[in-house]
Specification:
single chain; Beta-lactamase; eight-stranded antiparallel sheet; 13 helices
Length: 373
């Protein structure tokens, strides 16, 4: 789940962030004490239980700091190592894996999704089923609506919480909340952020390869690049810090969450740390995850809104200043995450908090970036 681009203040926030990130080409030295002081100031202002961040500097060093509490009830300090669900920041991993499959010829960006999914009844009930291409799913331009906040999703969530004691959906069930609706736009001719589109993409990846998404991700990206400790959200109990929604703890005594983390899947589906995020995005920028030409497609792809020149959603990335910076935000109930990479300054910044709600994590990252200018 992700509210990164849904609020009215998205353009203002990303414009500010972009200006800060591209203001200079060299980063000043930042140490752990300075970073911790910046975080504590932001944490207190935004009333977060805990806040942490990692900054990858141009020389490859990663500066990390954490402030506040991981567990308010136990008084446990937040550290840099325990994972938190990263929400939609996992979409960039989905997009990168898709590009690897394009590189080896398993997929084409122009493949119709119906090539792989056309015989499935849930797919045929989506809007634009005959015209959706892989590139449209990657860039939220397929004309598919989303499920969070809809009446049907909320109703089913309440029912499951009451009858089953928790909220858990399969990908097909979540996709079903977007079926039977009119297209939001012709494929490739508009933009609407949608977790549903990335769930469809996940099923397409599995159909094209005959492999599970998490197995492919582990084999092609996580293990080869030293990300084995990133936690797959493939089980109900995860080794994560508690999160807080409207002040209420999201973890039960048995470690389960009120909303089962397996439901997110290729809408995000990874629990990680800021350090892992900055390492991944720096490796992506360096051509170590996908080929440079594939990264160029990730940055240039998608629908370009004439009203926001230089700002658009590519393939798994929010693109700023014509590609000189990119970012992604993430929300999972009880947690917020944000990561940004600046190609000119060769710096990457990620921040996480164990609280959700109206928190502008992009502004936290911008505050850290300003300290580097």
């Amino acid at each position: 789940m992700d509210g990164h681009m849904r609020g009215r203040n998205w353009l203002l926030t990303t414009t500010l962030l972009c200006c800060v990130l591209t203001a200079g080409s060299e980063a000043r030295t930042l140490d752990e004490q300075h970073l911790a002081a910046l975080l504590e100031e932001a944490r207190a202002e935004m009333k977060m239980p805990g806040l942490r961040a990692a900054v990858r500097l141009p020389d490859g060093r990663i500066v990390r700091a954490a402030t506040g509490l991981a567990d308010k009830e136990a008084g446990t300090p937040l550290d840099n190592d325990i994972a938190m669900p990263g929400g939609s920041t996992g979409k960039t991993f989905v997009a990168a894996l898709t590009m690897l499959l394009v590189e080896d010829g398993t997929l084409s960006l122009d493949d119709p999704a119906s090539k792989w999914l056309g015989d499935l009844s849930w797919y045929t009930r989506l809007p634009n089923p005959a015209d959706i291409r892989v590139r449209h799913l990657l860039s939220h331009s397929a004309g598919i609506s989303d499920y969070p906040g809809t009446f049907r999703y909320n109703l089913h969530s309440v029912w499951r919480a009451i009858r089953r004691g928790g909220i858990r959906f399969t990908p097909e069930e979540l996709i079903g909340f977007a079926t039977g609706k009119k297209p939001l736009n012709p494929p490739g001719e508009g933009y609407r952020y949608t977790d549903v589109g990335y769930l469809v993409l996940g099923r397409l990846i599995e159909a094209a390869t005959g492999r599970s998404y998490y197995d492919l991700l582990t084999e092609r990206i996580l293990e080869p690049h030293g990300f084995e400790d990133i936690v797959l959200q493939d089980r109900s109990v995860l080794p994560v810090t508690p999160g807080y929604t409207m002040g209420a703890r999201n973890l039960r005594d048995d470690g389960t969450m009120k909303i089962d983390p397996t439901s997110e899947w290729t809408g995000g589906g990874l629990a990680l740390t800021p350090a892992y995020l900055v390492r991944f995005h720096a490796a992506l920028a360096a051509g170590e995850i996908v080929r440079p030409e594939s990264l160029e497609q990730m940055l240039e792809g998608g629908w370009h809104n004439p009203a926001t020149p230089g700002e658009h959603y590519g393939f798994g990335l929010f693109v700023h200043d014509h590609g000189s910076a990119w970012s992604h935000g993430g929300l999972w109930p009880g947690y917020r995450t944000h990561v940004t990479h600046n190609t000119r300054a060769a710096t990457t910044i990620a921040a996480q908090t164990n609280r959700d709600g109206r928190i502008d994590m992009g502004a936290v990252v911008a505050r850290i970036a300003a300290a580097l200018d």
